[in-house]
Structure formats: structure tokens, C-alpha cells
Amino acid sequence: MRTRAVVAGIDGSARSLAAADWAAREAAARELPLRVVHAGPAVTGDHFLEHAVELLGNRHGGLRITGERAASLTADAELLVVATRGVGGFPGLLLGSTAWEAAARAPFPVALVPSGRDVAAVGDIYGRRFTAGEIVVGVDARAAVDETLAYAFDAADRSGTTLRALHAWRMPLSEAARLPFRVPEDRGAREDHETHLLHEALRPWREKYPHVTVRPDVRALTPARALVAASARAGRLIVGRRGPGLSAVTDAVLHHARSPVVVVPR
Fold first, then answer.
1. Which pLDDT tens digit goes with each residue over 196-224?
2. Gene3D superfamilies this protein is in (predicted)?
3. Which end of the chain has fewer CB atoms < 10 Å from its terminal CB, N or C?
């Protein structure tokens, strides 16, 4: 049975504290407790864990926060939140192995919070402030994943935030090769078709969540480019995952997104 709690994984880095702060706000919005888990080698000892729980408690009064040590971030959770990078890695590395493994394997949603250059110093303990922008969900209109849309609509409904449903498409190679010789109406007809597919994929969810403001967005780009571009102004980006492992699209998004990214398993 899934534990009704948001879990924040920390490792002794300022980046992980920034992610834990994001997790605390998410737990408060869901009216769930926050479990702060220090995983991996005891590099910083119990002091860092106690320090993190105290800092988060001071910032989020009224939120139930507990701290614990664990060998790994395998415990079940409503949502696991980790920084894209922790204490390991090297300068320029955008996605750490712990974050990648959690996103690729966890049987529950995982939020990866990018740190940016402004939390490189431990002195800026909470670092980057993410805007309360719209929620963006990546949708494959030809094979929409119910778990991803359910998570996105629930998040938008709970927060009262606009939901942008982003569907990216490209011309088939056979058609793209002839594109210079095609009339503009051909591309317009294809865009209309893609828009229709997206509306159909969203229709049952819009009926289930009538109070959620949904903005369908169809882009003639590769999915990775469209999602990364959308992340620049998003409060969070939600993508799906089919089975263990990450697709090339999701992997690219996790490396380059500017907003927190939630990976929802099927």
C-alpha cells in the first residue's frame, strides 16, 4: 500500500535542500506529511538531516516533517522529490545518477528539481525560486497515457492552475522529404488533424475535471524541443514513463528542463 506522504531525498548538498523545500510546498498543498530521507553514504552524518528538518520546519510551520536515514530511496511514497544533481558528479553535469535511477525505476511519481547555477554555493541554502506558472503536461495524442493525464489534471485542479497540454508532432520522413514541393494547405491540414487528436485525447479528462482551465498546445517540433522550451515558463512539467527506463525524449527533458519535472510511471 502506498504511503500517504511526500518524500524528499537529500544527500548533504544545498541542491538537495532546495528540492526538499519544493517538496515541502507540495506536501502542504496536498495536506500530506513530509518525510525527509538522507540516503546513501553517511558523508555528512546525522547533523545535516537534523539541520534540514529544522530549517524546513521553520519555513513551513504546521507541516508535519520527519527525518530518517536510509540506504536508498526505494521506500514507497505518494511522490518522491530529488534534486537533479547532488554532491556527486562533476561541473557541468546536469543529471546525477541517483536522480536518473529514481526517475527510471520508481513505481510512483518522481519530481526532479533543477538547481541552476545560483545554488552552487552552500550559503544560498534554498537557492532558486520556481515560479507558480502553469502546469505543462506532455501528451502523445496518438497514445495518451491515462496515468500521466490523471496526475496532471489532479495537480491543476488541486492548485487552481492552468494546465497546458502539449502535443508535438513532426512530418513523417517520407512527407518531409517532399515538403519543399508541397502546398501550404497540406501542412495546415496536418496541423488540424493533430489538433483534433489532442482534443479527443483530452475530452474525457476535461469532462471529469470541468473546473480545470486547459490550453491545448500543438507544436510542429520534436517532443524534446517542445517540452524543454515550455519548461522555461512552467511551474512544473509532467511527463509519462512506460515501464522501467527512460525514453530518449524524457532523458533529454530531464537534462535540459528549466522547471521541476515530474515523471509519472504507467
1. 999 999 999 999 999 999 999 999 999 99
2. HUPs (3.40.50.620)
3. N
